[in-house]
Amino acid sequence: MAKGTVKFEVETCKGCELCIEACPQGSIELSPHLNKQGYHYAVLVKDNCTGCVNCALVCPDAVITVYREKKKGKTPVATISNVKQDITVTVS
Ligand code: SF4
Ligand code: SF4
User: Fold this and answer.
1) 42-65 average pLDDT score
2) Cys-Cys link to 22, which of 33, 58, 67, 71 (CB 3.0-4.6 A)?
3) Ligand 2 midpoint to CA 3 (Å)
């Protein structure tokens, strides 16, 4: 499963909770603290975000940015097939 994270523009959030409802992972809650506008703002409370972007799509104030981790590991650059004898491959 993909790994993601989200960042909220805390001072612009109005605490409408739409992102909380939209998150299939239950990753978001409202902070007990208030922003400068006097709203409890959304925060990421779990490390299980998949980067699905549901929250960003429903946010009426577009204050959520979603990040996805790039896949780890090496990408194959070549495939050797149909080998009938011993071979030596040197990668520089
Ligand atoms: S990107 Fe998806 S999983 Fe992550 S916080 Fe938003 S709704 Fe939840
Ligand atoms: S949907 Fe947007 S404005 Fe509403 S609580 Fe979430 S981040 Fe804040």
Assistant:
1) 95
2) 58
3) 21
Q: Which atom of ligand 2 lies at the shortest distance from residue 28's CA? A: 6
Has residue 87 been placed in a domain?
no
How many whole angstroms from 69 Cα to the centroid of ligand 2?
23
Tens digits of per-residue pLDDT, 65-90? 999 987 666 666 666 667 677 767 67
Q: How far is the CA of 76 from the centre of ligand 1 (A)?
A: 30
Instruction: Encode pLDDT of 32-42 as tens digits.
Output: 999 999 999 99
**pTM of this prediction?**
0.78
Number of domains in the chain: 1
Burial class (CB in 10 A: 0-12, 13-18, 19+), 43: middle
